[in-house]
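Protein modeling request. Please complete all fields; requests missing the sequence field cannot be processed.
Requester role: graduate student
Desired output: 3D structure, C-alpha cell encoding
Chains: 1
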Amino acid sequence: MKSGVSVSLLDLEAQYRPIREEILAAITRVCDSQRFIMGPEVEALERELARSLGVTHAVSVSSGTDAILATLMALGVGPGDEVITPTYSFFATAGCVARVGATPKLVDIDPATFNVDPEAVRAAITPRTKAIIPVHLYGQMADMDALVEIGTAHRIPVIEDACQAIGAEQHGRQAGSLGIAGCFSFFPSKNLGAFGDAGLVTTNNDALAQELRLLRNHGAEPKYHHSRIGGNFRLDALQAAVLRVKLPYLAEWTEARRANARRYDELFASAGLKDVVLPTETAGYRHIFNQYIVRVPDRDRVRSYMTEHGIGTEIYYPVPFHLQECFASLGYSQGDFPHSEAAANSTLALPIYGELTLEQQQAVVATLVEALSA
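Delivered output (374 residues):
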C-alpha cells in the first residue's frame, strides 16, 4: 500500500520485550528448583488467578481444550447425553463433547454479538440435555443472565467457554464466575498467553473443584491409587511461572486493546465505510477484544488484497460445526443455522494487540478501504 506500513495480525515480541528480564528470571527460578510438575509455582498461580477472577477455586490444566474436557468428565457427561453448544466457535467446544461420547446439540448465534442465542438454547433442550456450553466469543460474554435462568429452570449446568474472554464482564461480574464452571485458555495468542499450551477451570463449587483436581492427575489420590479414570491434564510449572509474571499486566494490556478498538471505530467512522459492520459492545458488558471482528462484503477477495499489501488478518471461523465433515453424522445441513453461516462467510479479524500504533491502525483501515474499492 501507499504508506509502506506492514502490520502483522499479532506481534508477541512487542509484548515480550519490556518484560523479558522478568520472564527469564521466572524461568530460571523454576529451572533452579527442578520442580517442573505441579508444585509451588502452580499453586501460587491458582491462588492469584482465583483472586483476580473473583472465584473460590481456580484449577489449572494443560490447555483450554482440556479445561472443557475435564469439566465435562467431572460432571459425568457421557454416552446418551446431549450438550448444547453454538455451531460457530473454535472446534474444542463441540469436539470435547464428542470426546466424552456425548452428542453436540448445535444452535445458532445472535448475529450482532456472535454469541449463542439464549432462545435457541431454550428450544434445543430435551430430556437428554446434560449441559449447556455458551462461548464468550472474541472476548465478549454471552447473555449469562438468560442462560443461567434457563439452566436453573431445567436443572442443567451451564459451563462457560471463556477461553477467549479472561477479564470480560457482564454487569460487573467476570467471565468464568457465573456458571457451574468457567474454562480458560492461555494459548500464546490470548490476552493472557503462556509460552505454550495452558488452561484453567474456575468454579465456586467445592465438590467440582475437588473432582477436577483428581481428574487432571489420572484420578490418583493418593499416588498410584486411582478412584477415577482421569487424564494427564496438569499444568507445567514453567508455564505457571510465565503466567505469574504476565498476570499483573493483564488489566493494562486489556485496556490497550479496548483503546485500540475505540480507535478503529473512530478511524472507520472517519473513512465513511458503509459496507463494513464493526463489532458491538453490549450495554453493561466489558468486551476484552481477544479479536476485533468486522463483517465485509466479498470477504475472501478483501482478505487476499490485504495480505498482498502487508496487512495480517484471519478468518474465525470459516466452517461452522454443523458443516464439518467429522460431524456429518449429526444430520445437519447447509442452511440450518443461517446466522452462523453468514458469520463464517463474512467475518474478518483485524490486528488488535495492545502494542499497535496509530500509524499501524491507520494503515489497516486505509488498506481495507483500498480493498473494498479495488
